[in-house]
Specification:
single chain, mainly alpha, 14 helices, elongated
Length: 310
């Protein structure tokens, strides 16, 4: 009992609120029933109802009539093709590149599509294989599959016409004679006459030769930057040893910069030569360079032709 008293006991203010809420609920529930006393029922005119029903029937019949395929709809609005005579399709072998408009119509193709094909051919179009007819605009897929087995395309003969002016009456091929060249006297133009040597390689050979001070051996040409060995082997037989003297460097007076400017001498070797000379005096012979640890016999043999002590 105490439980119900604790939860279902209300103050006077709360009871008024509950009563008010109940009254509002009852009023809202019965409110729709009061509207019938304020709204008057108007009689329905049976003639108007019959007219509305008849109108709906007319609209539905028109929709039924318009339920046509795309071809039927197109033909309804193409009077020029309404009068077209219906030709019973006939199947026969044909070449789509030479078939006339009448041939296409006999095959069961519409006149409009037949004209499209003729326009395509007139503009230089051509069918190369039977399946190409599937690309015809307006040709139905079912018609294309029906006609493909009967397509026979004639091979196109290539007509080659030779003019007397095209080829000379007598053509003589003269074998190019390559002249040997001096590796120290030849310029870039001379090197370009050799097989496999273009303007870039010829210029590189001359530039490399000038930096060296001249070639003392034909094999030195092979050291040119980016010169393929296969190309060098082709031109080697046309290279003559240089008759011009080699430009030499005086190791007793040359600076470090002058020494390292030579392609065979790097900075460490140039500095070693210079420092040795500063400490021990002038060189008495080229062989004195053997006393420098950074110069071995192989390097000395390579650079010796370019060095002097006077």
């Amino acid at each position: 009992m105490h439980f119900f008293k604790d939860y279902f006991s209300f103050t006077k203010k709360e009871r008024k609120g509950i009563y008010t809420l109940i009254i509002l609920i009852v009023v809202i529930a019965f409110l729709p029933n009061f509207f019938r006393f304020f709204v008057k029922d108007e009689p329905i005119d049976s003639s108007d109802l019959q007219k509305a029903i008849a109108s709906l029937k007319t609209d539905s019949s028109q929709l039924a009539k318009s339920d046509k395929t795309d071809d039927e709809y197109y033909n309804d609005y193409t009077p020029a093709y309404k009068t077209e005579k219906q030709v019973r399709p006939a199947l026969f072998y044909f070449d789509p590149n030479t078939a006339t408009e009448a041939d296409w119509i006999r095959l069961g193709i519409s006149k409009r599509t037949a004209q499209t094909i003729q326009n395509y051919l007139a503009k230089g179009g051509r069918f190369y294989k039977p399946e190409d007819i599937q690309k015809i605009y307006g040709l139905k897929e079912i018609d294309a599959k029906r006609l493909i087995p009967f397509v026979q395309i004639a091979e196109q003969k290539k007509e080659i016409s030779f003019s007397k002016k095209t080829f000379p009456e007598k053509t003589s091929f003269e074998k190019k004679i390559i002249q040997p060249i001096d590796i120290n006297e030849a310029d870039s133009t001379d090197f370009k006459t050799l097989p496999g040597i273009g303007p870039v390689l010829s210029k590189r050979i001359v530039t490399f030769r000038d930096k060296l001070g001249g070639f003392y051996s034909v094999d030195q040409v092979a050291e040119t930057y980016n010169l393929p060995d296969s190309t060098f082997q082709k031109i080697k037989k046309y290279l003559l040893p240089g008759s011009k003297g080699i430009k030499k460097i005086n190791i007793n007076s040359a600076t470090i910069d002058e020494l390292k400017a030579h392609p065979y001498i790097n900075y460490s070797v140039a500095n070693a030569i210079f420092q040795y000379r500063q400490q021990h005096g002038k060189f008495n012979s080229i062989d004195d360079l053997k006393k420098i640890m950074s110069i071995d016999d192989q390097l000395l043999k390579k650079i010796a032709p370019y060095l002097s002590i006077e």
